[in-house]
Amino acid sequence: MTSILPPSSSDMEYYYQYMYPFKSIFQWLSHSFIESQPDIANREFAMAFRSGAYKRYNSYNTIADFKNGIIKGNPDRFEIGAVYSKPPAKKDAILKTDLIPLQKELVFDIDMDDYDDYRTCCSGAQVCEKCWKFITLAIRIINVALVEDFGFKDIFWIFSGRRGAHCWCSDRRARKLTDLQRRNILDYLNIIRDRHVEKKLSLMRPLYPHMQRSLEFLKPFFVDIILKEQNPWEDDKAAIECLLLGGIYDKNLIELCKKFWLDNPGRSSEQKWTDIDYLATNKLAYGKKPDFLEKLRQCKEDLILKTLYPKLDIEVTKQTIHLLKAPFCIHPSTGNVCVPIMVMPNDTDEDDNQSYQSVEIDFDPTKAPKLISLQKQMEENGNRLENTDLQPYLEKFGRFVQKFIQNEMHEDATTNGDKKRFRENDW
User: Fold this and answer.
1) How far is 393 from 368, CA to CA, in rounded Å?
2) 262 sits in which H/E element
3) Which residue among 82, 130, 205, 366 is buried most deeply as judged by most CB within 10 Å?
4) Catalytic: 109?
5) Known catalytic membership, residue 111
């Protein structure tokens, strides 16, 4: 990805003034079409500035207050925090014990940094269509678990602006999770805890259903993405560190593979992957315990999960009070807009009960809208957003917000109806 100058103060002011979707963001965080709801008035916003300063505990009552506050502050980016028991802006006028975090979306952060040991197409801050597949697979794995295992449905994924993705799970049940419940969900999903290449994963068998489902989903992608496309173990040293020391448990097999690869240098990752099976079956299996090859198969399954399974930033998820960059912010290094990658419920006109697994993730980070291009398009279009690269993403998010608030209203109506029936039954 070509480097560009970071957006200037005037660039950001123009973006907030004419392009940022304050109304949709405000309604999403209000969980309502009506202004001045406690869910927004008590919501924390934080601003990060070019100088390195960071201002927390901002809160706003109306869309106009929200927009004016951000335009006036003109931050590099702003972040979204929890809904508190009192407006965060009044923090200095109330007792610290009275400012209690009550709810926040369940959020996840996945970054390409954690895949650097297995991607060869790019390095550093760069990203391309090939290595973006790591993020796409991660989104699919986590999304299926959130929908199928936890029953959440109001979910969307946002491009981080450089080379990662953020998930916002907005269901009421998700927002009201305690810190302990968030950590429990994280424990369920966060399989890859030690990310050193030379450390074995050593998962217990049988795998629990989510892990087994993820493994079966990832197997074909491992061949195409890791072995063929990225080919990270063509280098013999890397293969010894990760494939052998970080994957295989049998010392004799490790030594046998080492010797074979040193005698036959530069074999591809795909060849090395089959070498392990060949040497184990033809040179070592005789005289070994019956479960020798079964353990080897499990080691290779662990390696598939180790390379392709989502690697989560645990700090982002485990606390209600943690802040996360707002959707549609501008990444200060790339000038990219943090646009939606995927939303649930799906943004099509089909029934909401359609298979969430079939939703397409058609996104190329190298083609994400850039502020510099958007400004030019706006100037050519009379300061109107129509026909700009940002418009499809604004429409997609707008549809999500409409459906999300309808779900909230339906849940309110159902709950109130149940309460009413309960009171009538009491008599």
Assistant:
1) 10
2) helix 251-263
3) 82
4) yes
5) yes
